[in-house]
Each structure stands twice: as structure tokens, then as C-alpha cells.
Write a structure and sequence with these properties.
The chain has about 280 residues and is of the alpha+beta class. It has two domains: about 10-80, 2-Layer Sandwich (Phosphorylase Kinase, domain 1); about 85-280, Transferase(Phosphotransferase), domain 1. The protein has helices at about 50-55, 85-90, 100-120, 170-175, 180-195, 205-215, 230-240, 250-260, 265-275, 275-280, and strands spanning about 15-20, 25-30, 35-45, 65-70, 75-80, 125, 135, 145, 150-155. Strand 1 and strand 2 (about 25-30) form a beta hairpin.
Length: about 280
């Protein structure tokens, strides 16, 4: 699988502050000096396939890849910098309020990015670690999927090592069973739940305990009873135990378009959001 990407010299990068950690490395805000350009730089211990994955992708809702430092020990990936932090950080800031339009817009953008990975990219990619920390918000408030450290090309080995983050993980991923792209659908359902509730999934429960609850007990995140039924239905469908029964991202996009066209949904959703103190 040949792919070429721009090789960047380590000394071309001026590191500023650390702005988060991915699954497989630390992320920094930096300046790419020859271009006087603000970028995000992910430092890696090994230069794995993530650079290869990123170099093939081009979509408005996927983080833009500029190149990589390939000289050890300074392996780095250089991507666009999203100045509004991660979706997780945005949702955890009590000053940030979302309304129906914003939830639907970000929900749709994330689904568009995932649909691209599964259906439209030059090579089909299963992300395997979709979560609010791996969605970043650009300066103009567009959501973009990042961190492809756990990703898998479809067609590579079927059985995978454990990768991902327990509260967002599908049961088959937790059990290290062969995965299909619908493991990303499960994770998307959790991200949609986060967009609607601003809560941390399975907050305060240890990872392995979450794994046990989901796999052995069949537990799911609690959807508030006053949550608009159309959103609740999508989440329930994303969390079907049988992977084949989960919707594709194309189907999710169709469902979101139907919700968007239902004028009554604005008021129902905004009322639900305003009544958070009741259902929390």
C-alpha cells in the first residue's frame, strides 16, 4: 500500500504548549517555521501506520494532515491545529451551551466524516477509537475527527488487539473479536449521547468495570426519559448487541436529515436541554 507524504525536519517545528494526549502519543501546539503556520504535532514513540492512513484521507470533517518527521527518536505527525480544543473539553465546560441546531450540525459532521472513512475514502478505514476526545473543533466551529492511532484498514488482519476507550467501545471490541465498521457506529451513539447530555459516559466507573457491565450485564448508558424520541431511537440502534443490526453512517445521516426537517424537533430538543436540572 504505497502512500507518500511530506517529510518534515524536526527543527522546522517550534513547540509551544502541550494540548492533549492521543492514544499513542502527546499532542502539542507548534509553529511550522518555514510556513509560519500554527499546527498540531503528535510526538510518537514509533512511526506506525497512522501517517499512512492520514496521508490518504481528504475530507472537511477529518483532520488535515501535513506531513511527518520520520527521523528517530523524534517521530511526529503534523496536522492542522483546531483552536477550539476537543469536543470533550467543549462539552465539559459548563459555560458552553448547545442548542438543537448545534447538536444536529456536529452530529451530522461527525457522521459525514465517518461515512467518508467507511464508504468514500481511497481505502476503507475503521477508526476504532471514535470518542469526544478524538473529535476536535476548528476555529470556525467545524468538527473534525482525529487520532487514527488505533485505526484499521479493512482487508488487513481481522482479529485485533484491544484498542479504544472502554466507555465508547462496542462489546465485540472489548472482547477482542473480529470487528466490522459498525463498531464505530456504537461509539458514535456514545458521542451523540455526550452531545445531548454534556455528561461523561459511565462517569466514575473504572474501565474494566464498564467492560463487564456492557458485555456481561448488557448495560447501556442511561438515556434521559425526556430525551427526544428520535435521538433516543438512534442511540438504541447504535447500541444493538448484534453488529449487523446497527445502522451504517449513511443511514444515520438519513435519520438526521429527517429530524432536521421536523420543525417541532427544535422546541422539543431545546426544552429537553433547558430541563437538564430535572433529568440529571
Amino acid at each position: 500500500m504505497a502512500s507518500t507524504f511530506c517529510e518534515i525536519e524536526f527543527d522546522e517545528l517550534l513547540f509551544l504548549e502541550k494540548c492533549g494526549g492521543g492514544t499513542f502519543g502527546s499532542v502539542y501546539r507548534a509553529i511550522w517555521k518555514p510556513y509560519e503556520m500554527e499546527v498540531a504535532v503528535k510526538k510518537l514513540l514509533v512511526l506506525d501506520k497512522e501517517a499512512q492512513v492520514l496521508s490518504m484521507l481528504s475530507h472537511r470533517n477529518i483532520i488535515k494532515f501535513y506531513g511527518a518527521v520520520t527521523e528517530e527518536p523524534n517521530y511526529c505527525l503534523v496536522t492542522e491545529y483546531a483552536s477550539n480544543d476537543s469536543l470533550y473539553a467543549f462539552l465539559q465546560n459548563p459555560e458552553n451551551k448547545l442548542d438543537f441546531d448545534q447538536i444536529l450540525r456536529w452530529g451530522k459532521e461527525i457522521a459525514l466524516g465517518m461515512n467518508y472513512l467507511h464508504r468514500e475514502a481511497p481505502i476503507k478505514v475503521i477508526h476504532r477509537d471514535l470518542k469526544s476526545k478524538n473529535v476536535v473543533i476548528s476555529f470556525d466551529f467545524v468538527s473534525k475527527i482525529c487520532d487514527f492511532g488505533a485505526s484499521k484498514f479493512v482487508g488487513s488482519t481481522a482479529k485485533m488487539s484491544l484498542a479504544g476507550t472502554f466507555p465508547w467501545m462496542a462489546p465485540e471490541v472489548i472482547q477482542s473479536q473480529p470487528v466490522s465498521e459498525t463498531c464505530d457506529t456504537w461509539s458514535y451513539g456514545v458521542v451523540l449521547w455526550e452531545l445531548l447530555t454534556h455528561e461523561v459516559p459511565f462517569n466514575g466507573i473504572e474501565g474494566f468495570q464498564v467492560a463487564w457491565l456492557v458485555v456481561e450485564r448488557g448495560e447501556r448508558l442511561t438515556i434521559p426519559s425526556s430525551c427526544p424520541p428520535c435521538f433516543a431511537k438512534i442511540m438504541h440502534q447504535c447500541w444493538e448487541l448484534e453488529p449487523k443490526r446497527r445502522p451504517s453512517f449513511r443511514q444515520i445521516l438519513n435519520k438526521l436529515d429527517v429530524i432536521l426537517e421536523d420543525d417541532s424537533m427544535h422546541d422539543v430538543t431545546n426544552t429537553f436541554l433547558e430541563d437538564k436540572s430535572l433529568w440529571q
